[in-house]
Amino acid sequence: MSHLLLRLIISITLAISYPISASDTLQCVSDSYISPVTQTSGLSNPAEIGKYKYDVITYGEKPYLFSIGKPDLVVRNVTLPDFLAAYSKSQDYKYDAYHRFDSKNLPLEAKVWLPQTSEKKPVILIVHGNSDPGFDYLGEMFSSRGFVVVQVDQTYLNGLWGENGARGWILLEHLKLLSLWNNQQDHIFYDKLDLENVALIGMSRGGEAVALASTFNRWKTLPNSEESTEFGFGIRSVVALAPMDGQYQHSSGKNILKNTNYFVLQGGHDADVYQFLGSQQWQRVEYDDGKNYVNHSIYVYKANHINFNQDMSDDIHWGGSKKFYKKLLTAEQQEQLTKVFVSAFIELTLAGKKEYQDILRNPLGSEFGLPEDIYVSRFSTSAFRSIESFESLRPENKNFQIWVVSPKKLPPFSIEKERLRGGVDTPNNVLKLKLEEQVETTLQFELSPFDVLSDGTQHLTFSIAILASEEHEACRPYNLASDIKIEILNKSGYMISKEVKSKGSIAPLLTSDYSELESGDVRFAPTEPTLQTVVFPLELLAEIKEEDSLVLNITFKPTHNISVILDDIGIIH
């Protein structure tokens, strides 16, 4: 994908002055971070090998006469629908994305890990990006834990552009084939596949493809046609590893993921998918069926692109620079964190193990063999009740007030577009706020009693990222979360909530060091403010009535000057 990378980074320069050399950048960021003080979870390791033995089976097209190997099961080829076969031409690309092969004769090729059991088991499909398949480490782990794993080979789509819709569609063709086998009494897959509990995992271009597949799966018919898709599988969960976004777009625009659990994992030193594009699909998740869903994102500071895929790690080094990768997590470390987080998410959403959500919300580098690093976690659920999302740019439409020390003094603030690395605008709005050293800055929101009238534990959450900080420039440790106060008051001004602190730690400004990859006009913007969720448990000191008028105060009093962005303030269970 180097052609894409060059388009993103040529002539992008962000002028920031640091008192340290480039080689010390990662250490300075690490020194600025205070790890959260949290007890270990006591949970079983989601990345442990399970009790199941498994068989490995391959399927694919009929081999050529002189082929070295042949699949265990020979299967039919498939045809792409016209709207996908013609997509790249409609997007004004120079060449048809399918000019190198016949879009009416595409093979279904895969490697399957099948647990040795008579029970039906949930199904996981894994797909690569612009590379070869390289996820045996996930296939072996998941199958030992009782999942049927299908690693799909779509290498015939590599080297093209505009083809991610086809990648997603072909995944559903694999599910159609598996469904057929699942109902054939004489077949090895007969009654072994729980196709009402399916997860899709994809990396890079495959990371966009799995989200598209989930959307295609909801279609009853082909676009502008009465022809049935024969889909409608039970795709419950989608996992994207360093995904692309927007390479394929529907006629209505970018993909919206509906009524599906979503998890995106991104590295802070990705030299291929250079921007956190998966954060955009994370924003475009919607729920309307009244069921419970989760939406998770974890950004790993020292992770990169290639180490998610065993076929790429230690063999392909972007720009020929192995020095760049030596200072980051090793391939084994990145595979371990991928196993831990992806397995926790799959166990949570397919197996109903709710205890594993804490691993995703509060990642700890001291547990489950996770490497020491900065993990930036953002999450939401279908039960999230929004108080303010800053989507209205008009001041008269805002549902909040801001003041410094007293309501008469206004601090510098604005509502702006969230920006990816290199200053690229996104559709999402955020509140940009400048905080002064040892000065109280308060955000006040009107609060409906219905927001806090609920049985069970409730938490106030919001997303925050640091834009600039004096402590970062000095490489001194600081946790802004320790200087945030939360209050809920009634109409008489009496505080009716117990003062609490967040147990989390807000990441410093994450500065990446791409110096070994830079040359000539090729420059990488060093920072990408990445929103993370902070949590404050709510403990009410008085009874709330439906007719009460309430206000929520979020007060910052930092120990030094600092600029932040805020988003998605609300209540979560």
Helical content band: 10-25%
Distance between the termini: 41 Å
User: What is the fold-level CATH name, i.e. the topology of the largest domain?
Assistant: Rossmann fold
Rounded mean pLDDT score:
87
Count up the domains: 2
Structural class: alpha/beta
Low-confidence stretches: 1-22
Task: Give a count of the beta strands, DSSP E runs of length 2 or more.
Answer: 22
Describe the structure.
With 573 residues, this protein is of the alpha/beta class. The chain has 2 domains: 220 residues, Jelly Rolls (Sandwich), CATH 2.60.120; 320 residues, Alpha/Beta hydrolase fold, catalytic domain (Rossmann fold). Helices cover 19% and strands 26% of the residues. It contains 13 helices and 22 strands. Helix 6 crosses helix 7. The longest helix has 20 residues. The radius of gyration is 25 Å and the shape is globular. The N terminus is likely disordered.
Helix-strand blueprint:
Blueprint: H1 2-9, H2 25-32, E1 54-60, E2 73-74, H3 82-85, H4 87-90, E3 109-115, E4 121-127, H5 136-144, E5 148-153, H6 164-182, E6 193-203, H7 205-216, E7 235-241, E8 257-258, E9 261-267, H8 278-283, E10 285-286, E11 294-300, H9 322-326, H10 331-350, H11 357-361, E12 375-381, E13 385-388, E14 400-404, E15 413-420, E16 424-435, E17 441-447, H12 449-452, E18 459-469, H13 470-473, E19 484-490, E20 532-537, E21 550-556, E22 562-572
Parallel strand pairs: 1-2, 4-5, 4-6, 6-7, 7-9, 8-10, 9-11
Antiparallel strand pairs: 1-3, 3-5, 11-12, 13-22, 14-17, 15-16, 16-22, 17-21, 18-20, 18-22, 19-21
